Amino acid sequence: MFLRYIALAAATTVALMQPLAAEPVTHTQLDNGLDVVVIEDRRAPVVVHMVWYRVGAADEPPLQSGIAHFLEHLMFKGTDTLAPGEFSAIVEANGGRDNAFTSWDYTGYFQRVASDRLELMMEMEADRMQNLAFTDAEWLPERDVILEERGQVLESRVGAQFNEAMMAALFKAHPYGTPIIGWRHEMETLDDDMAMEFYERHYGPNNAILIIAGDVDTDDAIALAQKHYGAIPANENIAEVARPSEPPHLAERRLVFEDARVGTPYVSRMYLVPPRRPGDASEAAALQMLASLLGGSSSTSVLERRLNFDEGIALSAWAGYNGMMRDYGMFSVGVAPVDDVSLPDAEAAMDRVIAEFLEDGVDPEQFERVRRQIRASEIFALDDTQGRARQFGVGLSIGLSVEDVQGWIAALDAVTPEDVILAGERLLDRRASVTGFLTRPQDAELSQ
Amino acid sequence: MKRWIALFVLIALPLRAEVDITPVTSPSGLEAWLVEERSIPFVSLELIFEGGATLDSDDQAGAVNLMTALLGEGAGDMDAQGFAMRSEELATRLRFDAGRDTVSVSVRFLTENADEVIEHLRLALTEPRFDEDAIARVRAQILAQLRRDALEPNSIASREFARAAFGTHPYGRESNGTAETVAALDRDALVAAHAGAIARDRVFIGAAGDISPEDLGRLLDRLFDGIPDIGAPQVGRAEFLAEPGIEIRPFDGPQSVVAFGHAGIARDDPEFLTAFVVNEIFGGGRFGTRLMQSLRTERGLTYGIGAFLSSGNLGESYQGRLSTDNANVEQVIELLRGEWNRMAREGVTQEELERIQTYLTGAYPLRFDGNGSIASIMASMQYQGFDIDYVNIRNALIEDLTLEEVNSVARRLYDPEALFFVIVGQPVGVN
Predict the structure, then answer these.
(1) Disulfide check for B148: which of A263, A286, A427, B187 has CB 3.0–4.6 Å away?
(2) Residue A6 burial (CB < 10 Å; 0-12/13-18/19+)?
(3) Number of Cβ pairs closer than 8 Å across A and B?
(4) Which range marks the domain in which residue B211 is found?
(5) Residue B13 lies in a domain
(6) Chain A contact set for B395 (CB, 8 A)
(7) Tens of pLDDT along chain B (431 residues)?
(8) Is the distance from CB of B22 to CB of B34 less than 8 angstroms?
(9) Is B18 close to A90, i.e. CB distance below 8 A?
(10) Is the pTM of this model over 0.90?
(11) Residues B219 and B257 in one domain
């Protein structure tokens, strides 16, 4: 049995090493500065149309946290020629779905429609790139909507509140420490003038990326983009906002978040680490491999295997790396202990396992399994056109090139076990970290 | 404005889902629906076993859920670690999910090692080990989940609505069981739950991707070698019992979760599709519905509100959900009653009907989005009893609906006097 598995494993590796057919991705830039990326996937008569602006919550003026996200909501409230709500109504009437999202570094708008409706989507999206218009009847209730949104997705979820507190503690100066949705007391003061000013300073073709993915001919798609977006003049107000950077981190931060709604207490640690860098992904790739080895699987990764399976200390344990941010990346690890293990003991066990991992080195068999899954993920990703479109959108928004995005799998493949250990030793610095306990107050009763 | 109206008229073209489904019968008689898609070298396979958590007895509630969670935790001569490592070597992803009505199995594998993955999955389905250490580990995870659910207002609202709606029927209890029943489950109970839930007589199979009908049939026969022909008897229907009124579950938080609804329409009712269309106008999960327009867009009372036909295998209800600040709950309930009344009395307009027809027929092809979703839809359609050509006639059925038909169903579905509310929070001014 054992021999057979080895033989099969070798065969699998060989086949996966063969290069896939080059994915048809084209990148160009219009004269007005609009980046255009086209991803052809002709399997189904569907297209995804996305516009990403290189502006987000980390670019907000003081006292206006949440304005980037508020503006995202108001972008559905009409233009000089389009009535409030008509944008989504037209998408719906065409059988499409539309939505939008805001992050610290970008704000994106997308529609997924039958491919013969692409031009209509372009016409409308190009319109609201320059002609946004709304009245009190629209923006006033919408401010209540974003406050309800904060209530629902953040204040009603204790894990999200904990995460907000962790981020605020990790970043001492950089605006990644401010929640994307905004602080409630500042959100309550946002108004139409602030939103319009943000729009006029940041929205325009020279600060945007257009992504068209799906059942299109690349040349036709670029010609359509030229027709509808090419006529929009570059916005001369656009200038990159200088963001505060982090001072040296000399002391680790620790916090305890108590709430009677906590069902499963856990300890979480976030480290400040480098993000994906344009032109050289090696550091980020080593961090990603480190995260995959420590926490990428719910059974075989180092933290799960040791703390959950071997020692019975954890209900679950995890590790993750987020490098898709413009200025800083984050590396997180955490443990939810079983009932009779305290959070300090869980933290000590987590640190011990990580230290031992860095001391003992990478298990070559585990390393090979992780690599194999990464290579396979390249095949599975071809099935998810919208996911690929999103990767290019995020990547280009944070300053990566199309080649950087396409080279990620190769960068992961090039990481050696030594790179992983070195990254862990050099980049996980306790002084640049925050450790939090999420727990119930001692005297809280379970309302069950 | 004129420009847009012109476009609006132009685009009402009929769209057909371009999905070519091949019915496959394996040499041993297993039936499956396959959508061949040879351009990417992998396959998605979906199995739905009818029954799910409804097969549990009351004192062993949660047995099917715990059993299903353990299917990937050791099989044949592999313990949990060995099984997971083998999955990683094969670069496959196996998922086992227990729901109220079904146990579903989703697997994704590269064409080049299809045979090995099928053998791996066969071991999980036919020779699960249920090792004591794995039982203890996964049981602790489920108990932790139950504790979280008990402190999560949406879960509390759903649980209380189900309890009021279906009483002592399995639909009235939580699929994952309770802390007491889960703690009491032993290995024998899991072995019995496995024998009852995973059987040939209740399986529906969908596949999509890089595989021929012949190869699929051959693989299915290998996969089902060792799976029993007959499982546990299915249970009977659940009647909707909740009395009109308001039930409040006090919960400390900034908002209240409101669950609302009444009796629904059965999936096999000839008017089900019409009711689905009516609900899409009223409360389907989009921006343009009546509920979203009234409560979110015009009044800013909530981030999102939706209503849905919860039509299960054994019973049905019509429900909705929203979260809102505690101070808004009274107004929200009044508005909901008003919208319900308006629907029951006036129904929808011709314009609303035409818009939803264009939307639903246009959106339908977008569902067939990649091998994973297609395989899942193929299995689900069989489970729900649709004919294989439904994909091709479904849009025509929706286009043919008249305003009279739609509003007759609206009168049947919407009953403002029957509305039942569960409020989890500290609502102001509601008794």
Answers:
(1) A263
(2) exposed
(3) 218
(4) 22-223
(5) no
(6) none
(7) 333 333 333 333 444 456 899 999 999 999 999 999 999 999 999 999 999 999 999 999 999 999 999 999 999 999 999 999 999 999 999 999 999 999 999 999 999 999 999 999 999 999 999 999 999 999 999 999 999 999 999 999 999 999 999 999 999 999 999 999 999 999 999 999 999 999 999 999 999 999 999 999 999 999 999 999 999 999 999 999 999 999 999 999 899 999 999 999 999 999 999 999 999 999 998 888 999 999 999 999 999 999 999 999 999 999 999 999 999 999 999 999 999 999 999 999 999 999 999 999 989 988 898 999 999 999 999 999 999 999 999 999 999 999 999 999 999 999 999 999 999 999 999 97
(8) yes
(9) no
(10) yes
(11) no
Collect all residues of chain B within an 8 Å Cβ-Cβ radius of residue A15: 112
Residues A41 and A118 in one domain: yes
Q: Is A67 in contact with A187 (CB distance < 8 Å)?
A: no
Among B369, B373, B391, the residue to mutate for chain A (most A Cβ within 10 A): B369
Question: Which residues of chain B lie closer than 8 angstroms to A346, CB-CB?
Answer: none
- Across the interface, whether the CB atoms of B303 and A145 are under 8 A apart is answered yes
Q: Which residues of B touch A370 (CB under 8 A)?
A: 88
Give the list of residues 6+ apart from residue B300 with CB closer than 8 angstroms, or none.
A140, A141, A142, A143, A144, A145, A147, A148
CB-count exposure of residue A80 (10 Å: 0-12, 13-18, 19+): exposed
- Best to test chain B binding among A99, A156, A338, A363 (most B CBs inside 10 Å): A156
Q: How many CB atoms lie within 10 A of CB B280?
A: 24
| Residue B245: its H or E element | strand B245-250
Contact B395, B17 (CB under 8 A): yes
Residue B282 shares a structural domain with residue B398: yes
Pair (A297, A424) in one structural domain: yes
Instruction: Name the helix (H) or strand (E) containing B278.
Output: helix B272-282
Q: A432: which DSSP letter?
A: G
Q: Angle at the Cα of B174 (from B172 to B175), degrees rounded to 5?
A: 110
**Per the domain annotation, does A51 fall within a domain?**
yes
Residue B380 lies in a domain: no
The residue out of B223, B258, B290 marking a domain boundary is: B223
What domain count does chain B have? 2
Closest partner residue to B81 among A95, A114, A309, by Cβ? A309
Q: Classify residue B2: in a domain, yes or no.
A: no
A246 domain residue, yes or no: no
A270 shares a domain with A177:
no
* Model ipTM value: 0.91
Residue A34: what residue type? L
Give the CATH number for residue A90: 3.30.830.10
Name the nearest CA neighbour of A182 among A70, A65, A71.
A65
Residue A259 shares a structural domain with residue A224: no
User: Do B199 and B62 sit in the same domain of this protein?
Assistant: yes
Q: For residue B250, what is the domain's CATH number?
A: 3.30.830.10
Domain total in chain A: 2
Q: Could A93 and B112 be called an inter-chain contact, meaning their C-beta atoms sit closer than 8 Å?
A: no
Has residue A423 been placed in a domain? Answer: yes
- Print the domain residue range for A34: 25-228
